[in-house]
Structures are given as structure tokens and as C-alpha cells.
Specification:
With 374 residues, the protein is mainly alpha-helical. Helices cover 67% and strands 0% of the residues.
Length: 374
């Protein structure tokens, strides 16, 4: 069976993605929680909650999930420069507008911190802007690009490194998707194995971003698996799959015990793939996640992920200056409420209009096969 025919049978319909939106939201809150602990210096035990609340694990899940969702956006497209251009343009309108808002907020917060003593630098979430003289306008301009040579991931917004990976992978993702869905199953699996086993070599000898290719490729391979395959699994089989996925996912919280970081990254990535498969195909889990998403109505996971850092830093300074003399629990609740509120407002008035604009621009004069939503 060809990859194209397999993917047509995959569970790729957009209305089935509510469960994935909820899963992405949960992952965003995992990142929020860990960064809150770091910024407000709340002590937590390493490996608590069986490693499920590890922020790097959540980011790994993001990457595998992106590989799957982006595959859906390309599911009916034919390889062409126009389709490639349309895909890239939609990604720009999807990622950049909200990121630029978060970057502007971070600039305002860090420039304020730059003028104060003892309010800025956090060893676990470095912002080297605070340690360097001057405003460093050139580096701030580079920060707006996500892909320009010389852009520092640790300069201002610590979460930006994931967007840098997303933006750079997006530059080649359509070609990777078209290749992996047109190869036969064995050849596609061999290519995936090359990305996984060669991730450390790619990191050292190509560019660091290349080591993440296998995580996005896992999403493509999950997309290739026919929906009929998952229907054969009963409740016990799903429980076994989730247990194995949990065991693999937990490897991220044990990353310092491995000789190479990539080992824990990809064990976690395989575990993430199992979680995503269950969210898509196991009715028990899928229905629960879909109910959660319907209750929330909007997918504000990206806003929570990219906006929480400047909000937490601003509140940290109010807290250190004595303007917010409350407990850690109240700090968490206030931080969460402000992040949700701002993410919701910007989702309605920035994120959605920009995504819709990107779709309209790529639909005008585009061939029907290239107009899949991203």
C-alpha cells in the first residue's frame, strides 16, 4: 500500500482535532507551571508526578504533534513551488503575529528590569540582554525573524527556541512530508530511523535544529498509519499502549542520566506519539479531551505558551518590590488568570484574524489541491 493511500485512510479530518487542541493546551500548562516555579523560586522535587510535568517533555510532545497536524494541512497537496509558498505563508501568519506581540512585551519588561538591580537574570531561564551593555538594537531586530543567522535563543525570551525550531523545520517540512508519504512503508521507516539514530550527528555536524527532524517525522509516520489499524485495539490494548508511552515519555525527566541528550529526547518523542495516537483514536480518552476543548471553546495554547514569560516576569518584580505580598498559590492563580485573559483577547483579535488572512491570501488563485487549511 502506498503512503498516499494509507494517509487517505488516516484520521485526518479537521473536526477530529479538538482532542489534540486540548492535549496541546495541557502541554502548554505544563510549561507554564515549570516556568512559574523557576521565576518565583518555588522548590519542587525532580521527577515528581512520574515525570509527566517536565516542560521539555511537553515541548517534545509539541513537536511530534506539529508533525502530525502539519501533515493534515498538506494531506491533499501535490508537490509544487506554489503549494510550498502557500504553506510557508500560512505558517508566517500563524506563528509570527502573536510572537511579535510577546516579543514587544518582553522588550518592555526587560528594558524596565535593565534599569533595576536584582530583578532580571535567572540562571535557569537566562536573558543575556540583561547582562550586556546598551539596548543591542541589532539583536532585537534579529529576534523578530526566528530564522536569521546570529539570532540568540537565550537573549530575551527563553521560550523562543521552540519557535526557532518550528520556523526552521517549516522551511523544509512540505518536502519531508511529500517524501515520507510517497515512499513505501519500509523506506519511510528507514528514513525515520536515520533521523532518530543520527540525531546526535545531525546536531554536531549540520545544525542543532536538524536533530529535531525525527520528532516531526514521527508525526508524519503517525499520520500514515491507517485509521482501521487503531480500531482493532480494545481497551486493554490501549491501556498497555498508554503504560508503555508513559514509561518512554518519562525518559525526558531522566535526561541527565543518559550519555547523550538525544536518547532521552527520542524516547520521550516515541512516548508522545503514543499519547497522540490515544488522543486521536481511543474513544475514552478522545471524548474526554473533546469535552474539555468544547468547554474552553477556543484554542489558546499558543498564547499561553508564548505570553506567559513576560507576564510572570512583570509579576515577579511587583512581588519582589513588595507590591504583591501574597503566597505562592495566589501568585500562581493571578499569573494564570492574567495569562489566560491576555491569551484569549489576543487569540480573538490578533491570532484568528491573522490566520484567516493567511488562508485567504493562499487561496486566491491557488489550485484546489493546495488549499488545505493549516
Amino acid at each position: 500500500m502506498s503512503g498516499e493511500k494509507e494517509s487517505e485512510k488516516s484520521i485526518g479530518a479537521p473536526h477530529r482535532l479538538g482532542a489534540l487542541d486540548a492535549l496541546r493546551l495541557i502541554a502548554a500548562w505544563v510549561v507554564f507551571r515549570e516556568h512559574f516555579y523557576v521565576i518565583f523560586e518555588v522548590h519542587s522535587e525532580k521527577g515528581e508526578y512520574f515525570g509527566l510535568l517536565d516542560a521539555k517533555g511537553a515541548v517534545t510532545l509539541f513537536f511530534v504533534l506539529s508533525g502530525y497536524v502539519l501533515s493534515i494541512s498538506l494531506r491533499r497537496s501535490l508537490p509544487s513551488f506554489r503549494t510550498y509558498w502557500n504553506f510557508g505563508l500560512r505558517r508566517v501568519f500563524r506563528i509570527y503575529p502573536l510572537y511579535w506581540v510577546a516579543l514587544a512585551m518582553t522588550f518592555a519588561v526587560l528594558v524596565f528590569a535593565y534599569q533595576r538591580e536584582g530583578l532580571g537574570y535567572l540562571s535557569d531561564m537566562p536573558a543575556t540582554f540583561l547582562d550586556s551593555p546598551g539596548l543591542q538594537v541589532k539583536q532585537w531586530l534579529l529576534q523578530t525573524t526566528l530564522v536569521a543567522p546570529g539570532m540568540l535563543s537565550y537573549f530575551a525570551l527563553p521560550t523562543v527556541w521552540t519557535l526557532m525550531v518550528e520556523a526552521k523545520i517549516a522551511m523544509i517540512f512540505p518536502w519531508l512530508f511529500w517524501l515520507m508519504t510517497r515512499l513505501n512503508g519500509w523506506a519511510a521507516t528507514a528514513l525515520l530511523a536515520g533521523f532518530v539514530l543520527g540525531s546526535a550527528w545531525l546536531h554536531d555536524h549540520v545544525i542543532g535544529t536538524a536533530s529535531f527532524l525525527g520528532q516531526f517525522a514521527l508525526g508524519i509516520m503517525l499520520y500514515r498509519i491507517p485509521g482501521d489499524f487503531w480500531k482493532k485495539l480494545n481497551g486493554f490494548a490501549w491501556c498497555v499502549l498508554l503504560a508503555i508511552s508513559l514509561f518512554l515519555y518519562r525518559a525526558m525527566s531522566l535526561r541527565y542520566f543518559f550519555a547523550e541528550m538525544e536518547t532521552s529526547l527520542y524516547l520521550c518523542a516515541f512516548g508522545s506519539t503514543g499519547f497522540i495516537a490515544a488522543a486521536l483514536h481511543w474513544p475514552v480518552l478522545r471524548s474526554g479531551l473533546e469535552r474539555l476543548q468544547k468547554m474552553l471553546r477556543y484554542d489558546i495554547s499558543y498564547g499561553i505558551y508564548i505570553l506567559h514569560y513576560p507576564i510572570l516576569m512583570a509579576l515577579r518584580w511587583l512581588w519582589l518590590d513588595g507590591f504583591l505580598p501574597v503566597s505562592a498559590l495566589w501568585l500562581f492563580l493571578i499569573s494564570a488568570a492574567l495569562t489566560i485573559l491576555l491569551a484569549y483577547i489576543l487569540h480573538r483579535f490578533v491570532e484568528i484574524p491573522c490566520i484567516q488572512l493567511g488562508r485567504r491570501l493562499t487561496q486566491v488563485g491557488s489550485p484546489p489541491l493546495g488549499s488545505a487549511a493549516s
